[in-house]
Amino acid sequence: MPHDRGTLNDARRMVTIGEQLSAKDVADLAIGHAVVHVDLPRVHERLGRARAVVETALASGMPTYGLNRGLGPLRNSEVPLDLMGDFQRFVIVSHAAAIGTPLTRAEGRATLLARLNTLAAGGSGASVALFDGLLDLLTHDVIPVIPAQGSVGAADLSQMAAIGLVLLGEGRAWLPGEDRVVPGAEALAAAGLRPLVLGAKDGLALVGSNALSVASAALTHRRTELIAQRADLVAALTIEALDANLSPFDEVALAARPHPGQLESGARVRAALAGGDLAEGRVYPGSVQDPISIRTVPQVHGALVDELRVLDEMIRIELSCAPDNPYLDVDRGVFISNGNFSITGLAVGFDSVRVALAHVAMLSERRVAQLVRELRHSVTLAEQIQSTISTTGYVTPVILAQTASALVAQVKHAATPVSLTGTTVGDGVEDHASMAYPAVRVTDDILDVVERLFAVEALLAATIIDAGQRRAPRALGAPVARLAATITEITKHNDVTSDVVSWVTEALRRERRGDDHSEMRAPAVPEPHAIHDQEVARHDQLH
Questions:
Q1: Cβ distance 211 to 97 under 8 Å?
Q2: Which parts of the sequence are annotated with region: Disordered (predicted)?
């Protein structure tokens, strides 16, 4: 019977548009663990005041970027008043250049939330109709199909235009409640919505936003944060398997150099081992001092935690600011040209996170090598041969060290900075780009590899723990005991390593969030093709 111990059973909470949002808020809304709320009268009043400035600027004829003047290289070209409505559609259609595999609905929901929250600040000059139109898409789950490629992190122009097309009754969107992509007009009609008529400035207010980059940053940050927590759990499995010395995790020793990340990492490892014979001193460690890949877990894992903490604050600001260019200062009644569309801080932040991830992965790969060595040396060749004949379940391959080496090579390669790769576009006017969106996507992609690496380490550690328990049973820390038992059970029902690793990844996720392992569902197959499988995979990555 399903239990209510873990967070899978948490009631949906409320996320309020117009207030400060966090990466977790965005992730929860994206995967359906939160519902959106907005104080419409308050937001409408704020947008109305800003809109009055837009109308005044139009009437005065004052040259204003994106209002009565063109965009980018056409910034000095006048937009005739009689073409103002057509200009809004022109902005959307002429920027709809995104290509590639569609992003999941989770990214789509997150992007809508991110843009709604910054529009609510009133600094864009967007119309009430645009705000309400985007809100309708989100609340009716009419999620535009957003291609994965096109942004250089200086406003997600082409991908935000994909959202604009759906508002106009064009483009493509997911049919509400179904795993089916249909024309935008059909999706709107199914939800009882009509195409939107955009007002002056609305085109730029929609496409001139980094909402996709920021939303993707929030989701990837949340996922990385959860993986960092699982890294400590996996390390604890290895520590138990190898009878490692626990002195490097001593609370007093770590507090002598009190970086928050290493304190947090050390505490998680101690909690995973607590109550076991090794932690209680009833089993002696195998060495006075272990290899650095064990000794420096708190320091190296903590470096990743500290990078994520800095990035978290940056994301909070991006989610809750007024980043438009030009920025509408309602109090002074003026548009101010600026560079707030540049999110170089996010790009550099994710580049730094990937470097920290690479160090964490390097430690994991070295611990895998130690586990393989232990597995080889603790069982004779004759016994290993006999096990392949007599064992009815899965035999853990000793060459998983090679697999881990291949995985860590990918992670280290991905640590190359993406933020330095931008080129000049816009006829030379746009001569710098943050490359924030590509930096985020590379980070999210490499997290798949990191999760597989951790699963390989956990599988090897559990195999050694199981063999030790059969020889001489001893008490283990509760999380370690649960995981080791679950992984051993997994190997009894699967005989293909790729399947075993997928199941172990799911077990690590469940243990981190406190869910019952007996309720594990089959993990989504790698590189899912069905839209439903993509949604399940994305949900599990973020939860």
A1: no
A2: 511-543
169: nearest Cα among 148, 146, 197: 197
What is the DSSP-derived secondary structure letter of residue 69?
Answer: B
The conformation of residue 495, written as its DSSP 8-state character, comes to: -
- 523-525-531 Cα angle (round to 5): 100
Which residue, 66, 67, 16, is CA-closest to 43?
16
Alpha helices in 396-524 (DSSP H): 400-414, 436-471, 478-493, 497-513
* DSSP, res 278: T
Tell me the C-alpha distance between 403 and 369, whole Å: 11
pTM value is: 0.93
Q: At residue 4, does pLDDT exceed 80?
A: no
Burial of 371 (C-beta count, 10 Å sphere; 0-12/13-18/19+): buried
Residue 376: partners with Cβ closer than 8 Å, 6 or more residues away: 398
Q: Is the peptide bond before 41 cis (omega within 30 degrees of 0)?
A: no
Q: What are phi and psi of 194, to 5 degrees?
A: -120, 155
User: CB of 464 within 8 A of CB of 244?
Assistant: no
The angle subtended at Cα 203 by Cα 197 and Cα 206, nearest 5°, is 105
Among candidate residues 186, 319, 295, 174, the one with its CA nearest the CA of residue 242: 295
CB 88 within 8 A of CB 203: yes
